[in-house]
Amino acid sequence: MKKNISFITQGCRLNQSETGSLKQGFIQNGFIITDSEGIGDIVVINTCTVTEKSETDLRRLINRLVREKPSVKIAIIGCQAEAGKEKLLEFPNVNWVVGNAGKMNLPEILSKENDKPLVEVPTISNESFVSENSSMDKELTRTNLKVQDGCDCFCSYCIVPYVRGRARSRDFTDILKEINHLLTHDYKEIVLTGINVGKYSSSGKNLNDLISTITEINKDFRLRLSSIEPEPILDSIISNMTINKKICRFLHVPLQSGDDSILNLMGRKYSAEAFKDTIMNAYSNIPDVCLGTDVIVGFPGETEESFRKTYDFVSVLPLSYMHVFSYSPRPNTKSFGFENSVDKNTIKERSELLRKLSETKRKKFFEKFKGKILEVLFEEGNNDVWNGLSDNYIRVKVSSKSNLQNKILPVKITSVGNNHVNGDLVFE
Fold it and tell me: Taking Cα atoms as reference points, which of 61, 41, 47, 44 lies closest to residue 10?
């Protein structure tokens, strides 16, 4: 009898890519995927542990699953499995705990007729890797493609190197093989993702070489970069983006703080001024580029003056949006024992100021496109309203009775909503 299985993915794009690969492995092992139909007999939770909140979210999620389906069996995989190990078996209905190094073997593990609780958290290899299964999800028009994993930076606040391992890259030839497989299945957008994707290196090729090789493929698609650290490779990528129309006009480059003293405490390897130079280089040379960033609020030692430096710094930068995070002390990280912590109310107030600034910047970015034409990849429709994404990361809605799914079409922007813009198809 075939087993029903469903998936819940928390956290980053890399997790999303790995879940896509896992689904293909389970299908090959005779499982039935029930994501669109509710809770399966087995639920796989691909977890995140970047913040303390992610652990609280996991506990609530498990309780909800058990309440809605008391017979469900749960597999916790990924970063929280690395951090929590045997402790996670104490959660109700959790039967399997599998770390990052072993989670791609989950289809084989769950195929065995053995319900004995299992904890498998093997040591993470530092070697380059290949992917056994494609990351494609047939319900999507865009897909996240894993090209890199792990990180060697060890920023003082970050638990990722401890749960993801050291930086390593996917084999160059293996990536091209999957790219061609995805394009054969008519994907229109591929997102290159990793933990520190700017460190990609395989067969003497860096990330910009990989981008150039992929975009030489003679197919109708576009390529997007996920979040990329302020690495030296960015200058050549920006140069490539100015002439290569297949690369989406989008860069998400984490800042974390606009105060050099805080950046130094964080263990970040750049100054605020160097970050500004990178952003201005992209803004000046890539027309209508979308520029996003991350900011951490309340890092130990963040005074009112240092926060004000950050606020003033991002205020003048041509950013399109910001993701604002409250500092979360993580065990085993260097900053876990730092003094001069910032109280929660202050963090909340400062975060709210930055989020309001982000909303203002996003709306300003949207407004500049009224009357202009954007190329939009349409993903889904409901009641003749179609939802899509422009190459420069703007959510676009249009009205049409036609089936627009998985088509890239020109849209003239007519008005601006809260988190999207509205438009009309140019040729309808």
Answer: 47
- In this predicted model, what pLDDT tens digit does every residue of 147-193 receive, in sequence order? 999 999 999 999 999 999 999 999 999 999 999 999 999 999 999 99
Q: Are 134 and 124 a contacting pair, CB within 8 Å?
A: no
pLDDT single digits (tens) 76-122: 999 999 999 999 999 999 999 999 999 999 999 998 867 788 898 88
Share of the chain above pLDDT 90, in %: 86
Helical H segments across 142-295, by residue range: 160-164, 172-184, 207-215, 233-243, 260-266, 272-285
How many CA atoms within 13 Å lie on the side-chain side of 170? Answer: 25
Local confidence band at 128 (pLDDT 50, 70, 90 cut-offs): confident
| Per-residue model confidence (pLDDT) at position 134 | 67
> Which segments of the chain belong to CATH 3.80.30.20?
142-367
Instruction: Report the residue count for the chain.
Output: 428
pTM of the model: 0.93
Between CA 244 and CA 251 the distance in angstroms is 14
d(CA 134, CA 25): 9
Q: Where, residue-wise, is CATH 3.40.50.2300 in the chain?
A: 4-120
Between CA 272 and CA 78 the distance in angstroms is 33
Predicted local confidence at residue 271, as pLDDT: 98
CB 91 within 8 A of CB 28: no
Chain center to CA of 276: 23
Task: Give the three-class secondary structure for 164.
Answer: helix
Specify whether the CB–CB gap between 389 and 140 falls below 8 A.
Answer: no
CATH architecture of 373-425: Beta Barrel (2.40)
Please classify residue 21 by burial: count the beta carbons closer than 10 Å to its beta carbon, then call 0-12 exposed, 13-18 middle and 19+ buried.
buried
Q: Which of 406, 161, 391 is nearest to 289 (CA)?
A: 391
Q: Which fold has domain 142-367?
A: pyruvate-formate lyase- activating enzyme (3.80.30)
Task: Return the CATH architecture of domain 4-120.
Answer: 3-Layer(aba) Sandwich (3.40)
The span from the CA of 226 to the CA of 230, in Å, is 13
Strands 201-202 and 189-193: unpaired
Half-sphere exposure at residue 180, Cβ-oriented, CA atoms within 13 angstroms: 9
